[in-house]
Structure formats: C-alpha cells, structure tokens
Amino acid sequence: MGFTFTDADTETEFTTIGAGEYLAEISEVREVKNSMMLVFKSADTGDRLCNDFLHFSEKAAPFTARKLKQIGLKKIDGKYELSDDGMELVGKRVVLTLVPDENPKYLTPDFSAENHGYKAEDDIGF
Predict the structure, then answer these.
(1) Which residues neighbour 79 within 8 Å (Cβ) at sequence distance 6 or greater?
(2) Which of 3, 45, 82, 85 is least enclosed by beta carbons within 10 angstroms?
(3) pLDDT of amino acid 124
(4) Count of helix runs (H) and strand runs (E) in the chain
(5) How far is CA 86 from CA 24, 29, 68, in A?
C-alpha cells in the first residue's frame, strides 16, 4: 500500500472540533500499563473526538466506576464487571462534555463536571 500526496496536502491545517457535548462511541480499547485507554469517535460523523483513561487503582476506582456506569456497563448478579481487555465496551455510547486539553489542539472530558464529563446516552435527547 503506497501513499501519494501533493504539496497542497502539506499545507492543510490541523483543525479540531470545538468544546461542547457530543454523542460519542467507543471505537477502540487499548491496554496501557495498569489502565485502559478508551478511544472515542463521534456517533454522528465517525470523526475521532478524544481519548480517555480508566485507572484501576484503589484511589481511582470511584472515578472509573462512575464512568463505566454512565457508559452503560451492565450488571451481572448485582455487580458491574469489566473483562481484562475491555472489549465489551467497544460500540457503547455515552454523551461526553469535552473541553480543551492541555494541548489546545485536542479535547478531553470535563473532569470538573458531574461524572467527569460522562452522561448516559439515555439522559440526553440527541
């Protein structure tokens, strides 16, 4: 597979979407050390929105649990369970409130908002 481009392609500016609420879908889950990285895309356009991490330390467990509940992880025998690879999250949707990241070219969930910028899809009328 080759790659062809013109000089005009090198002049294209990188643009991002603006901060706000987006119906997002998890398109990929990656293992990163003792965490999982979730890759979100727009459920409407398919464009990449952001990445976010689920951390599993004792200190981070309440934050991760809130995110997973908003994402719609199902209860099994009264408990929420996530597999080691997290593949059951791919395709799940959530409404994300996104704000500029430290690098303003990127967006990140608003950790100062309720449930760290995550809202269940059913809570918002898109």
Answers:
(1) none
(2) 3
(3) 57
(4) 2, 8
(5) 17, 6, 11
